[in-house]
Design brief:
Protein name: ScbR family autoregulator-binding transcription factor
Shape: elongated
Distance between the termini: 19 Å
Keywords: DNA-binding, Transcription, Transcription regulation
CATH class of the largest domain: Mainly Alpha
Strand content: under 5%
Number of helices: 10
Pfam families: TetR_C_45 (PF21935), TetR_N (PF00440)
Largest sheet: none
Oligomer: single chain
Organism: Streptomyces roseoviridis
Number of strands: 0
């Protein structure tokens, strides 16, 4: 157990160091030497977990899926809105997620499975389907089209926010996005029941605890798989 915990810590240290380097320099300009210097670990430790710079980047891209854990709300449209705020706040504070977002745009190597944008679309579409089943959205709404608009609009907002304010004004931009988009999506009378500002401190704390538990389980599983020499589930 102690060996597994050390493996989990060293793997996370490498990912956090790499995230800072990738976020600042981009994939092509990043070097494993700088990643090692930031992590404080040996080259042997790095290659024990990651055989190449590309494998580190792929592990960082996996962080994107962990950031798509939807908050539990009775109204599924509120879950989508609050997921966008949770993602926005993590972009402000989490270098791993920021690196994942940058790598999604800049990766010059093949990505196995779904891309981060496809992951976002899958998560959003699933919540929209639940919202449709609960009668929250307008009849006949094209959910594929709405999914693309939501993911595309949020992507554009976070890029603009990064350019203009280093993402400091991202929550305000997300509020504006929902204020303008919801009238074309929501059934009459529903808009008044939706909150388009960040959730309360209590809701945020509960959401964060759930997300951290999920992330810890994912990290432990990845470290255990690396020790065993098998792909993470």
């Amino acid at each position: 157990m102690a060996k597994q915990e050390r493996g989990t810590r060293s793997r996370q240290a490498i990912l956090e160091a790499a995230a800072e380097v990738f976020d600042r320099r981009g994939f092509e300009a990043a070097s494993t030497n700088e990643i090692l210097a930031r992590s404080g670990l040996t080259r042997g430790a790095l290659y024990h977990h990651f055989p190449s710079k590309e494998s580190i980047a792929l592990a960082l891209l996996d962080a994107h899926s962990g950031a798509l854990l939807a908050p539990e709300r009775s109204t599924k449209l509120q879950s989508i809105i609050d997921l966008s705020f949770a993602f926005a706040f993590r972009l402000q504070s989490d270098p791993v997620l920021r690196a994942s977002v940058r790598l999604a745009l800049e990766a010059t190597f093949p990505l196995p499975g779904k891309t981060p944008y496809e992951q976002s679309s899958v998560a959003t579409r699933a919540l929209l389907e639940e919202a449709q089943q609960q009668g929250e959205v307008l009849p006949g709404l094209n959910l594929a089209e709405v999914t693309d608009v939501i993911v595309g609009a949020f992507t554009g907002m976070q890029v603009m926010s990064q350019v203009y304010s280093k993402r400091e004004d991202l929550p305000e931009r997300v509020t504006a996005m929902w204020r303008l988009m919801l009238p074309g999506m929501v059934t009459p009378g529903m808009i008044g029941n939706l909150r388009i500002v960040p959730p309360s401190a209590a809701e945020t704390a509960a959401d964060q605890a759930r997300a951290e538990a999920f992330a810890a389980a994912e990290a432990a599983a990845a470290a255990e798989a690396a020790e065993a020499g098998t792909p993470a589930p």
